[in-house]
Amino acid sequence: MRKNYLLTPGPTPLPPEVCQALGKPIIHHRTPQFQAILKEATEGLKYVFQTQGDVFILTSSGTGAMEAAVVNLLSAQDAVICVESGKFGERWTELCKAYGINADVIKVEWGKAVDPKEIEKRLAANPNIKAVFTTLCETSTGVASDIEAIGKVVAKHKAVLVVDAISGLGAIDLKTDAWGVDVCVSGSQKGFMLPPGIAFISVSKKAWDLISVSKSPRYYFDLTVAKKAIQKTDTPFTPAISLVIALVEVLRMMKQDGLENIFSRHNLMARATKAAMKALGLELFAPSAASDVVTAVKVPAGIDGEKLVKTMRDAYGVTIAGGQAELKGKVFRFAHMGFIEEFDIIAGLACLEKVLKELGYAFELGAGVKAAEEVFLKK
Amino acid sequence: MRKNYLLTPGPTPLPPEVCQALGKPIIHHRTPQFQAILKEATEGLKYVFQTQGDVFILTSSGTGAMEAAVVNLLSAQDAVICVESGKFGERWTELCKAYGINADVIKVEWGKAVDPKEIEKRLAANPNIKAVFTTLCETSTGVASDIEAIGKVVAKHKAVLVVDAISGLGAIDLKTDAWGVDVCVSGSQKGFMLPPGIAFISVSKKAWDLISVSKSPRYYFDLTVAKKAIQKTDTPFTPAISLVIALVEVLRMMKQDGLENIFSRHNLMARATKAAMKALGLELFAPSAASDVVTAVKVPAGIDGEKLVKTMRDAYGVTIAGGQAELKGKVFRFAHMGFIEEFDIIAGLACLEKVLKELGYAFELGAGVKAAEEVFLKK
Predict the structure, then answer these.
(1) What's the complex ipTM?
(2) Interatomic CA distance for residues A340 and A352, integer angstroms
(3) CATH number for region B5-10+258-378
(4) Burial (CB count within 10 angstroms: exposed 0-12, middle 13-18, buried 19+), residue A215
(5) Which of B11, B24, B100 lies nearest to residue A28, judging by beta carbons?
(6) Please, are residues B24 and B242 in contact by the beta-carbon 8 Å criterion?
(7) What are residue A187's DSSP bridge partners?
(8) What is the pLDDT of residues B74-94, one digit of tens each?
(9) Contact of B133 with B81, CB cutoff 8 Å
(10) Average pLDDT, stretch B152-173?
(11) pLDDT tens across A297-315, in order?
(12) B16-256 adopts what CATH topology?
């Protein structure tokens, strides 16, 4: 007997309603039956994105939707700002480079959030900047950016604000319209509690103006074609039918729960997790800007970080994430996103305590779990 | 009570093993557990593709893999040949146009297959041609191309042969290596009996040589990055985990069945379907080059083709496909691909007969079903 517990920042666990929807016989996508589903999915996404603008469903990983943002908005030689505060911020720069777009890169120390004033400074220095690429929650460090403040800065300029909200949307607050986010990109396997395979992208009026003059080559990710198709409740290419059907299930759940409840649940889990780590004598990697979806924790001295993650997973079935790139072996990432509740956090913490003990780290057994329980009880 | 029967050329019905696999809890993709799955899936795909070369799994519709072929092989201003014998052949031309590639288009009358001699002629006339884009089974017309003969022609030139085998692979024969197919593209929702959402692409040595000098911008569909990742049994971006897990299930089934048995089953179903249509006094749209995966049939005079398809689907739950683009209302397409057996064909034919009667078409009730039964019995 082996039971698996998933506490990674994507994929996140699937609600049983999703598993059931995915296991149903397939239907054809060019039918009134699927059209009703596509319509409900698109409307539901607008609720979660908090937008009245367009939202499209793409059949791709989140990175495909990031590419869609770059190639639809810009042309080779255009100037943009890319905020790099981790592995996923770097992806914006790589994408721009691939399409000959000149990126003015704001390098932020891993574990810190970008200072909106730095974006302001760069925008003021170069009035030709057409877009600012940012990340809602940098999964590699657990840091959340202050998108609201960045939105206020960018709104004063002709540039559009693009946010990679693959990690975070539907779990922490992002008000696409109210905060002036022109293009918001997300994916299915995090806050949306689905398997990976579909991605979402919102487009504001200001973004459409830029799209209308962009010359980057594109076909599969062409949003102008997607817009024409959705006006007939269709997609340009065969969509990932079963994932869209399951999307409708989670959107119904999310609407019933309400965004405010979802956000406060994630905040509670994050607070409990942080309290537990502190009680275990562990240090947070990003104490000043940690997001509510994943907590990055420094591996204590003398402990093998990769072995910690591997043992939890292979010996006990609890999957958390290790560090990526420059943080490999130096942090572990304990996620609390999507279909996760307080007792999942408790279970994950108990496993963490067990393996830390086995690896010889000194602390009082139960201290982390107790600290989390206290936070949950106080709520 | 309403039971649904799916006889469309994609998506095709899901085997129960696939439904079960899709409904399982999700696992993380960067684990030994998923690596074993990715390895088995890649090996199994090589069996179905009949290749020793590379095969990659992309998270996209089939069109995404078509775009991958174009952007990885070519640069703007390159010269290529595109064979257009239907809607999907036209997609190659559109893709090339989007990336500034000069397509010499061979327009073939819808319902006919391309003459390999025409490709030979054009290749001889322009030694700069870098690629020939073709379609295994043109879903819009039901026509299959003679890829083996085209392969012999292209092999004599420096150009690579690219085949859109989205419709057909794993259902009718295509010997990637033996026939000299340099890049073969397929999708999950046809011969592979899965929901749409992942696509496959094979790459020969000759194709890699071209890829090494291609300058088209690319990121999400960059096959060089995919190659580096698969060497570590990884994917560059989060894959559609649940679809890859289900892919392993179908690949096991396909291997157990054996390609020859799969091909002969499709041939038998195609022959039965054609015999039935003939017995009903209906005319095939492409009698000379009809594929074994979908049969396009002319809508008889006086019958509303769109109403025929709609009534079968909405009144009786049997989904076949109507005509696309210039064939809208003029043909219907009865598919026999993937997880379909003789009694599915019989059921579909009975529904076709019922609705044809209701719409006032004159024929002997049962004649089509009987003709199909005779073909199945003779086998």
Answers:
(1) 0.97
(2) 17
(3) 3.90.1150.10
(4) exposed
(5) B11
(6) yes
(7) A199
(8) 999 999 999 999 999 999 999
(9) yes
(10) 98
(11) 999 999 999 999 999 999 9
(12) Aspartate Aminotransferase; domain 2 (3.40.640)
